[in-house]
Design brief:
The chain contains 3 helices and 11 strands. By secondary structure, the chain is α+β, with helices and mostly antiparallel strands. The strands form 2 sheets. It has an 8-stranded antiparallel β-sheet with strand order 1-5-6-7-11-10-9-8, sandwiched between helices. The longest helix is centred in the last third of the chain and has 14 residues, at 156-169.
Length: 176
């Protein structure tokens, strides 16, 4: 069982509660569902054949999913960017978080960034945990949607296609 919360999404998200009022799921192929956030207007494909929803945020703008029978987890988040932070500023902030051991991949564009690497091991963790996160901002930078997936390094091959599908499906929030 993973005992830590993800760094990137936990820093930006509200306390997670079981209520999921602002979510809508639509069939997205075998084992996949399209999640649409009504309030912010972002969407993303979720592998509900491999993961189950554990909790949603109190304002309905995010979800946490846990791997069925495994230690992997996915966190989904959408939020208003009330402080006007740029994608590069977000990426720099998260790159320096204590829980990050090392960044092995970083890419960015004018409205997005991706970070991937390894978490520092916590007591009781036997192997490195890989994380991959993407933040995507709307055109006026007033809101963003993000996801993070983390899993044991030994499972990287198994999760590569999952990460690719989730990453390609993420759609930015609507203009606020």
């Amino acid at each position: 069982m993973i005992t830590r919360r993800s760094v990137c999404l936990s820093l930006a998200s509200a306390t997670l509660l079981p209520a999921l009022p602002a979510r809508v799921f639509a069939q997205g192929g075998p084992g996949w569902e399209l999640y649409r956030n009504r309030r912010l207007g972002y969407s993303i494909d979720l592998p509900l054949g491999l993961f189950e929803v554990e909790a949603g945020s109190s304002n309905g703008d995010g979800l946490r999913l846990l791997e069925i029978g495994g230690p992997a987890q996915i966190e989904i988040l959408g939020s208003e960017n009330t402080r006007g932070v740029s994608p590069a500023q977000f990426a720099d902030f998260f790159s320096d978080a204590d829980r990050i051991d090392r960044i092995t991949y970083r890419a960015d564009g004018s409205r997005w960034f991706v970070l991937s690497g390894y978490y520092a091991r916590e007591s009781g963790e036997r192997e490195d945990l890989v994380f991959y996160t993407k933040y995507l901002f709307n055109r006026d930078y007033s809101a963003f949607a993000a996801f993070e997936i983390s899993y044991p390094e030994s499972e990287k091959r198994r999760f590569d296609r999952v990460v690719t599908r989730i990453e390609k499906s993420l759609r930015a929030p609507a203009l606020l």
